């Protein structure tokens, strides 16, 4: 059964590459540069760029920004999620404001954060944290509201302190929900990252895409796009496996 799933997934990827090749061939009939967008030169350049070390600093810079953004999103989203989940009044007071802010694209804040923080990593950290905080916060709040009340009553009957209730009963009970929110946040952050890295930084995968465009190195550009997809896939798979490990531990 497991091998069937892998075979079907591989077949889907083969179809995707075939459609990619067909699209490049169709475009090449009217635009010769489209041949550089085909799978073969993209994969060939990806191998060269990785083997000669050109891409590794950009990968490292992008992953650092992602992890810092997620760290701040967790630092804010989990406590606020607990507050909203534990207090109906807090939920009623904050829900309209949170829903309003959540619907604003993080990228629309780009001119504001550049004005406030200047160019560099600081505005990117802000935008990534802003994008990631909502799924973490909402999943945490949902998990808190769905905690088995018998567990809470048991803790109270054993005279557990507030600290013990929080760290020994409530937090373990909602960790699965937090990890689900984290997985959603990773997907959002990874999509938002590339345009954020066009804010005047000099390294990162978003910067590398701009650089390849300016150099008209379209096969390298496609290689970077493929790499972004592969890393995003790996991050999502890692988050999914972490959630599965927690549920079965």
Quick recap:
With 249 residues, the chain is mostly helical. The protein is 82% helix and 0% strand.
What would your notes on this structure say?
There is one protein chain. The chain has 249 residues and is mainly alpha-helical. It has 2 domains: 1-36; 38-248, Orthogonal Bundle (MetI-like fold). The chain is built from 10 helices and no strands. The model has no long low-confidence stretch (mean pLDDT 88). It comes from Neisseria montereyensis. It is found in: Cell membrane. InterPro entries: MetI-like, MetI-like_sf. This is ABC transporter permease. The chain crosses the membrane at residues 66-88, 100-119, 125-144, 165-193, 216-235.
What is the strand content? under 5%
- Which segments are poorly predicted (pLDDT under 50) over 5 or more consecutive residues? none
Rg measurement, Å = 22 Å
Tell me the distance between the termini. 24 Å
- The number of helical elements comes to 10
Membrane topology: Multi-pass membrane protein
Main location: membrane
Domain ABC transmembrane type-1: 59-239
Family: Belongs to the binding-protein-dependent transport system permease family.
